[in-house]
Amino acid sequence: MSEQKIKDEINKILSSPTDGTVTVLSCLLLVQDEIGYIPDEAVEEIASFLKTSINEVWGVATFYTNFRFTPPCKNILEVCWGPTCHLKGAPDLISGFLDKLNLEEEGDSKDKDVSVRYNTCLGACQQAPVISINHSLRGNVKVSEISNIIDFVAD
Ligand code: FES
Predict the structure, then answer these.
(1) Is the CB of 122 under 6 A from ligand 1?
(2) I want to staple 52 with a disulfide (CB 3.0 to 4.6 A). Which of 56, 104, 111, 152 is the partner?
């Protein structure tokens, strides 16, 4: 995507009607939800949109570890490691997914097929352990399913 297209897209996102107060954080969340990461252009556009400084926007963006500043892989796999999921086997799922993707920690697979992220609660605790594949929840996940899940996602 060209720099101008990114700027146009971000302006479209920021101009969309929202409920409630518009803040630096809410703008950053909107952009990441829509395009999957926070490009440099977004920081500039948000600063201009909110009539604040680029440093202010960078300060908020870098404070929260959930923002990413590079495009994600084709697929996003989130593994919940919240308390309920932790008790129901999330540690084994996490190590299984990382092993399958040859990763040491959350991040992008080398083939750029899958970005792995940890999530503190995916909001479906009754189905723990829970994962999300491209924003679609899947509960009661078993370690024995890891290979099939990754093969399916990366296909
Ligand atoms: S703790 Fe995992 S979905 Fe809530």
Answers:
(1) yes
(2) 56
